[in-house]
Fold each of these.
Amino acid sequence: MSLSFTTERQVAVAAVRRACGLTASVFNKLVKNETLTKGDKSPVTVGDFAAQAVVNVMLGRAFPGDAIVGEEDAADLRGEDATSMRTRIVELANEALAGELGLGDMAEWGIGPGQELPAEALLEAIDRGTHAGGRTGRFWTLDPIDGTKGFLRGEQYAVCLSLIVDSQVQLGVIGCPNLPQHASSPEGPRGCLFVAVRGQGAQQLSLSGAHPTPIAIPDFAPEEVNFLESVEAAHSSHSFNDAVAKIMNVTRAPTRMDSQAKYCALARGDGAVYLRMPTGVGYKEKIWDHAPGSILIEEAGGIITDSRGQPLDFGLGRTLGENYGVVAAGKSTHAAVIDAIRKAKEQEAKGHM
Ligand SMILES: Nc1ncnc2c1ncn2[C@@H]1O[C@H](COP(=O)(O)OS(=O)(=O)O)[C@@H](OP(=O)(O)O)[C@H]1O
Ligand SMILES: [Mg+2]
Ligand SMILES: [Mg+2]
Ligand SMILES: [Mg+2]
């Protein structure tokens, strides 16, 4: 049985579109005291918080019973020292919620004139993202800005939303405000949305949600294979990717790109392999960093697993648990990557790397 998730898709596209508008506009005005450093030393900006508030308000209105696993929480925004950040977030979120309706968007998911939400309501909306996830039931995952470091550099970032039902990702929407619409014209128009619904294929749309175009991962001849990888060396091992690429006789240089824009690029054939290997022990990948990308890859005809070929398990809570690394590629390439990873691991164990 395949469910169509028509309304879910419509709400998700509308919410991601509004969040993309917000983040793109905030970037140009971002000032120094609008970024915090979280407990894990990673940055978070007023854009991340406001985008999470907007998406959660819209989801709450359209699907009041649904839980949300969101990256951010409002704890750091409640104190007196956060007054100016809080004020800015309230302003940004209300502006986006009151903004013009896009294609398929509905007035009742946002706010009308004079209906601005107070700070407390928006902080509560952000905190609706604290759901623990789990094996059964239905919940959304939200990464309001994935690739915050890329966002701060003016490079790639993505607004990422997915719907998970009984541990299976059923819907994914990724908004990439800075991604060129066509990889072949990197200086051409930027900004795209990617949508995948289980059993319905993958599509690229304009940022406004118009012009859906089916996308699929092409077959790559061995000499055309190239890797997509993280910009931040702390997030994914560049040297291990290098070793795997050598084993596969890959000659093309890797493309480094922040965020789940990598999954989008892979899904439309801009690259052949997305490989993400842990850089140290202990970090567990977050479900919001991979759920939307994973369904996009599968619906574009590709395969996504961890580095040992195991399926990603979205039913373990907020993290991917014991899944080790991530490998995504087209059907004709994926097995070769898993094989090369095994060989690279053997070399590493023998001290040859
Ligand atoms: N140590 C470690 N290992 C692996 N991953 C980590 C690590 N620390 C952070 N993160 C997560 O990486 C997310 C950023 O995505 P990418 O790594 O693809 O982008 S980047 O190129 O590295 O910027 C980033 O997502 P955002 O916080 O939404 O930007 C993090 O969830
Ligand atoms: Mg973050
Ligand atoms: Mg992220
Ligand atoms: Mg994020």
Note: The chain has a mean pLDDT of 96.
Amino acid sequence: MDYFSYQNRSLFAEQVACKDIAEAFNTPTYVYSRATIERHWQAFDDAAGEHPHLICYAVKANSNLAVLNVMARLGSGFDIVSGGELARVLEAGGDPTKIVFSGVGKTEAEIEYALEIGIKCFNVESEAELYRINSVAKELNKIAPISLRVNPNVDAGTHPYISTGLKENKFGINIDDAVELFKWANQQEHLNVQGVDCHIGSQLTDLSPFLDALDKLIKLIDQLAAAGVTICHLDLGGGLGVTYKDETPPHPSEYMKVLMEKLKHRPDLTILFEPGRAIMANAGILLTKVEFLKQNEDKHFCIVDAAMNDNIRPALYSAWQDIVPVEQRDSDSLSYDVVGPVCETGDFLGKNRELSVEAGDYLAVRSAGAYGFTMSSNYNSRVRAAEIMVDGNTMHLVRQRETVESLWAGESILKD
Ligand SMILES: Cc1ncc(COP(=O)(O)O)c(C=O)c1O
Ligand SMILES: N[C@@H](CCCC[NH3+])C(=O)O
């Protein structure tokens, strides 16, 4: 069942008409479906079965407190990449002992914060970072649980900007150097070696790169055992793709089944996953209003009130996201470029879209729940959108639209 579907030609989010949301809260507005988030998270968790595992939702995909809280109530773990994300997870009621901390540039302050809170594990991305974690832990007289994120050098076959598991990418530690570093870490009083980690990229639509990476990681874990380093968890990262247009990624349960099948003889290993997009992308839409229709030469433009500052994915990755009317019309359609008010030619939400639309209509950008609001900005001094969570027949405002005054909060002018 799709939780964003038409009833009598009107788009609904669960049991709430999107037109009612737009009228009540104005536009642009992000709308999330609680039931969809829960169903997607559960698909990962259920498919892991009895094997010890932990789903650590990748906070960067969508870090709204209400979203994190829905996940926390399901018992989710979290994958974070900054002190800010750590604070958000705690604020949302997340369990610190289920947090893994990824990212290539952890500061001393962030490491201290995470050690004080008692997170599950640091996913260490370089030799220098390992030394830094060791010295901060020593200073605080704590033991830092660590996992090394290795770069298995597999081609994820995704957009170059979101591929992370190749030798030339900045992420992780060269898999060939990992054993020596693990051996060193294993001897440190203030480090506790827990796991091996990898994340090879995002929006993967094929299982084979995941399987190639898994094979390499299992081999590494065996090499480590032979070298006297015991590994108790394997973190396979996130990266499972979704359908934006005509992609056919495996369903989360199929992805999990195939990976877990390979791991069934390893009950000694707790398996961690860090899905972000696969949980959130299709759990959200972006509602926007048509301001004007305009024609230049033979090109038709549909100018809407959402822009690249609200959803940068089309401009950044040439990403395609479906754009649909909130209320369907019978009139003939035209091919439009759907563009925002920002002063950039790259400010478009979609190109050559067949739409039957008039000024004042509402449109919905689909698959917008992941890397939508979290990548939004105030460019052109535009306030960031409101966020709504729908739960059955109820809509909850989970983030107010920013005010213009908030744009310069913290700024000041010279006295003379
Ligand atoms: C370390 C890490 N884990 C998890 C994710 C989540 O990826 P995705 O949203 O593709 O599942 C990312 C982002 O690509 C990441 O960098
Ligand atoms: N932000 C990207 C994905 C990057 C994933 C983060 N490592 C997107 O919108 O597709």
Note: The chain has a mean pLDDT of 96.
